[in-house]
């Protein structure tokens, strides 16, 4: 890992997490960054290094059913969820997003950062970060190859059908159908692959257009969709740099 400070392990209200101190500047603000589907918090180490090098406290935690919280292998998790995305994926998104308030409170107490909170992640992690952005304490969100529309129309992946419990999670947390949850007007940026057929950029575009026509009418610059030419469903260094720039621009204003 390239940062000057070592990754540290912590448990926040029963949730396994890792974090890193800023490696330059005094550092006040916290970035919470989540991995993609089937990933672990440790998989974000390179991104945490980059955020720490940019002057942020940087933290990741294992999403529900992932990493140290898994009850099955990665392969079994992938097979089960991909076999019926709406039934098995929606609960992971909703439950993990609803853990953000506990993580923020615990991080402030245990780590001691004094500034603002930013949220972001890769694919599933970005989906969760957007949903978590409804918490007014989150100043900025950077979601990479992610969507605010959990229905994901146009995706090449078969969506499956939700059961009653999964539908309840969608009805409670899906960002596109809960625009009024963003009254705190966090700055939200989507870094999308132009050729992404797994998580099409269209959901981000519709979400941003709807918010600009409503809650963000007088601050449209706080929303953005960046489409990376020629990129499929793949996280790139350009997306990471875009997230860092977004957090610097809006998270610390």
TrEMBL record:
<dbReference type="GO" id="GO:0008236">
    <property type="term" value="F:serine-type peptidase activity"/>
</dbReference>
<dbReference type="InterPro" id="IPR001375">
    <property type="entry name" value="Peptidase_S9_cat"/>
</dbReference>
<feature type="domain" description="Peptidase S9 prolyl oligopeptidase catalytic">
    <location>
        <begin position="116"/>
        <end position="218"/>
    </location>
</feature>
<dbReference type="Pfam" id="PF00326">
    <property type="entry name" value="Peptidase_S9"/>
</dbReference>
<protein>
    <recommendedName>
        <fullName>Peptidase S9 prolyl oligopeptidase catalytic domain-containing protein</fullName>
    </recommendedName>
</protein>
<dbReference type="InterPro" id="IPR029058">
    <property type="entry name" value="AB_hydrolase_fold"/>
</dbReference>
<dbReference type="InterPro" id="IPR050261">
    <property type="entry name" value="FrsA_esterase"/>
</dbReference>
<dbReference type="GO" id="GO:0006508">
    <property type="term" value="P:proteolysis"/>
</dbReference>
């Amino acid at each position: 890992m390239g940062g000057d400070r070592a990754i540290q392990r912590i448990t926040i209200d029963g949730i396994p997490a890792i974090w890193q101190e800023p490696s330059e500047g005094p550092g006040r603000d916290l970035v919470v960054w989540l991995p993609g589907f089937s990933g672990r918090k440790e998989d974000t180490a390179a991104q945490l290094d980059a955020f720490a090098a940019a002057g942020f406290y940087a933290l990741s935690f294992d999403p529900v059913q992932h990493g140290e919280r898994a009850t099955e292998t990665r392969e079994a998790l992938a097979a089960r969820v991909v076999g019926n995305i709406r039934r098995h994926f929606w609960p992971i998104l909703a439950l993990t997003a609803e853990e953000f308030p506990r993580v923020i409170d615990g991080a402030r107490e245990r780590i001691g950062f004094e500034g603002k909170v930013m949220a972001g992640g890769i694919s599933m992690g970005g989906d969760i970060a957007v949903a978590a952005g409804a918490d007014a304490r989150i100043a900025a969100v950077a979601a990479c190859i992610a969507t605010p529309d959990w229905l994901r129309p146009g995706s090449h992946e078969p969506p499956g059908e939700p059961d009653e419990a999964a539908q309840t999670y969608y009805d409670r947390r899906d960002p596109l159908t809960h625009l009024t949850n963003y009254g705190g007007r966090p700055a939200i940026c989507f870094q999308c692959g132009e050729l992404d057929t797994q998580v099409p950029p269209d959901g981000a575009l519709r979400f941003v257009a709807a918010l600009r026509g409503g809650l963000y009418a007088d601050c449209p610059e706080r929303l953005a969709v960046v489409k990376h030419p020629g990129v499929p469903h793949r996280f790139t260094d350009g997306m990471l740099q875009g997230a860092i720039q977004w957090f610097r621009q809006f998270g610390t204003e």
